[in-house]
Design brief:
about 300 residues, alpha/beta, Rossmann fold, 2 domains, seven-stranded mixed β-sheet, five-stranded mixed β-sheet, 13 helices
Length: about 300
Amino acid sequence: MEEIKKATRESYGEALVELGKENKNIVVLDADVSTATKTNMFAKEFPDRFFDMGIAEANMMGTAAGLATCGKIPYVSTFAVFATGRSYDQIRCSIAYPKLNVKICATHSGVTVGEDGATHQMLEDISMMRTMPNMTVMSVCDDAQTKWAVKEISKFNGPVYLRLARMKTAKIYDENQKFEIGKGVQIGEGTDATVFATGVTVEQALIAKKILEEKGVNIRVVDIHTIKPIDRELIIKCAKETKKLISIEDHNIIGGLGTAISEVLTDEYPTKLIRLGVHDTFGKSGKAEKLMEYFGITAKEVIEKIGDVSF
């Protein structure tokens, strides 16, 4: 893991331009926040394939659905709170129900939105999207993974929700790393604990792994970049091979990554899971790093739970 910091929304913007050059059916829609979502990069390169729909997110989803019926591959972007919260009905009825080929790429998710505060810190989007039939749900953690995901989701026909972040995170993977939709990435072979993480929290889990190794505690980190369909096989494997299980996410602990993992464990291998996340509350305004500390989704909490929890 390198200290080169980059936000996944920036990687998204760069990947869109690359994808646009490869596939002329790619079109991009934004809801008046293209500078923030970084779709302005695509707009500059392909102005005839970029549509600024204004502050009308629900209409944007309907328009994307229409474009998909005409053979286009729409990438639809705005902040996560608007993409899912303000447009839920249109996503459900106009995109997911007919299983249209629309890629919803939402930035500014979780408490790491920072100073924008509770109204803009979407902590329910994973829950909302993963319970929607036909929807693939992904949450990426760094530059290489984001660029892979943006291109990979263009290759299959169906709706996708791709969760992106505002906060800059470290480079975790190199360009040669192999990913697969629906398959998690196991980092390390430690048997003392498994830490399941997604998005911005993967970096925190890896920081905890490094610190714990210096103390003689060996854990493995599992990057769950695809939350639906989730990697059931890897979850059960880790439950059988490690002494403790912890999940960590920048999301409400209700309905998110921890819940998805718990469902797998309940069905196939009942085991205790400690869920780190936001505990059924709204966010607050503040620096992203301070908010992660406030809500207990940092390496510090991972280390404490591994040390204190007896299974």
